[in-house]
Amino acid sequence: MKENPYRKDSEDLKELLQQFLNLKNGRSHRFMSEDSFEQLIEYFDELEDYPQALEAAELGTEHFPYSATLQFKKADLLIANRKYPEALEVLEKAELLDSKDINLYILKTDVYLALDEQVKAVQLLQKALDFFKGDEKVDLLFELADVYDDYEEFDKIFDCLKLILEQEPTNEEALYKICFWTDFTGRNEESIRLHQLIIDDYPYSELAWFNLASAYQGLKLFEKAIDAYQYAITIDEKFDYAYRNMGDAYIRLRKYKDAIEALEKVNELARPEDVIFEAIGHCYDKLKNYAQARFNYRKALHLNQTDSKLYYKIATTYMNEASWQPAIKQLEQALQIFRKNHEYNLAIGECYLKLGKNKEAIQYFSAVVSARPKNTAGWEALIRCLFVCEYYEEAYEQVQAALLHTHNKPLFIYYKSAILFALGKAKEALLQLEKAMAKSPRLIKNFVALQPSILQNQQVVDLVARHKKNKRI
After folding, report:
1. What proportions of the chain, in percent to the nearest 5, are helix, strand and coil?
2. Whole-model pTM above 0.90?
């Protein structure tokens, strides 16, 4: 019958712990090897029993003073216990024993960073890069990238990751990280060149294709980005992030049906997310399929019930269908979460105006004006509402206030003209209209939209025609 290896390991460890206890208490014990001390340190470290681990390291270095490995383990424990000067002292001893062990540089870097001596950490790692090759050099470059990250030298992080990929083009960690830092630093052109070289040698690297696509997307070259994402998902058909980004690229190109197809694939492959359902809803919104838009916005809302924006988007789908009461219900939910949002207040005001509930509409538009007196949209909605309700005197007062707060925006000069016409002050109204057209002729459409019947006024028609003739000359 075979001996159980786990039981044997357990018995060996039990015996080792007894020897360690005997050594600590000064009792007789069997000879303990360097490996035995290493095993004890690792055992206590895994248990997070740092005092015992450190005691094992102390005794180990006493018994094997020329063991660099035990010195490194001791230094590591001192760092974990925030005893940085002591750790540095141990590392100085370890360096005399073995100056070519990568742990020396990684642990020293940890100490320098803990002591806020970034310059020393960088100098140490840069010096160490000359001593190492292969995997160890890659480890040091990752360490250096982390140092630059701590001190927000972001371009240098990109440089480190680029060096890693030039040495090890299929290093997954570097490929994942450089995608983020390309976007963060905006170094898309460099990323494109780098990943094109990688793809030349490793055409089946889905991460390289993904990063190439992301860089194209960063430059708003959406067609090229989509082509590269297609390669990535051909290699790995379950690459959900490629489908996600491809969906975004299709949205930018206003190819909403293609975007929906890509984003639905994300839902198949990954855990449902509110942002994906919201994006699908947005696509259906743009396709004027408001029922499907609502369906997806509600799915997003189920996953994130505190997002007021989703209630607002559902409301706009109802508004596009002229379903004012359901829209109000959704907007009230949005306003419970974010009472002062001017978009929500403007939207609910519009709904009440459409329902003929003028008092409520004015109340919401006034709230926007009070909260944001320099905001054009609030004044426009309030004045238009007062005009539609035929409160011309009040509209005139508000348009004067709007001109003052918005530094004479041409839109409000047009509105002032319309109000003066409504008040029967045609001469002054024509002067204001001429002034508005001189400032911004394209806004004449807003003037006409406010009161379409104004085009039956021959003086207005003549003024507009004369202005157009003068513009041609």
Report:
1. 80, 0, 20
2. no
